[in-house]
Hints:
alpha/beta; TIM Barrel; 7-stranded parallel beta sheet; two-stranded antiparallel sheet; 38% helix
Amino acid sequence: MTDLTKAGLYPLGGAKVKRMGYGAMQLAGPGVFGPPKDHDTALAVLRAAVAAGVDHIDTSDFYGPHVTNRLIREALHPYPAELTIVTKVGAVRGADASWNPAQSPAELTSAVHDNLRNLGVDALDVVNLRITGDIHEPSEGSIGARFAVLADLQRQGLIKHLGLSNVTAAQVAEAQQIAEVVCVQNHYNLVHREDDALVDELGRQGIAYVPFFPLGGFTPLQSETLSRIAAKLGATPMQVALAWLLQRAPNILLIPGTSSLSHLRENLEAAALVLTDETIAALENVSAEQKVT
Length: 293
């Protein structure tokens, strides 16, 4: 079994967590909608992740909707003391599986209560405010009023720590005037590097950066360079892509998702994969290739 501590630890809210975590999104049905195709396997994946040492799980009540949180509760409740569960609010799912903004004070408050109920907790460890617009890319604009709603729920004791998702550097700074921000979750991977400066700035502040789509998401990373390097290392391209993220900056926390036990093991093994400076230099070419399909 891979020792996840080899990748190091980093503060996330009130705990130091292993930098290799798990994202629960793929446990829901196709298109992140409806129940899993195999309920028992979904439970087994969650239990295997925690048994392997994962102490940071990312989820949301709009995955399913309500599916992944209920699976997490069924598989893991009562939760280990060292487990940090991070959820997000700011969207709802339509009956047609559409992703729709839900960012009014009433909608954000309702979403927090949904997460509390479905996870079976009295207070949520971390709640990220997911800013909608372009579903994968941030756009400028004030988020203060929305973040203030979550800050008020934090003061009420319903949320322990706050984070942000799909935001710009200016929006992070705006939120920090309202309450402490413990993590930022944005689109970032070996090819998608627009947040390079933000990753570094958050690192200087001691704030965790959590890439979503670390392996490309719905369009997995494709690169001749990545495949060649992986073959030379005796690893998979996805393991190399995860290892690159871990070595990119110490404040990066990973949450690769899967509904497969074998893929879970492969992802976790990336925590022990060390890339040389020469390999990292070669991987810098992957971004230039622009081969995401």
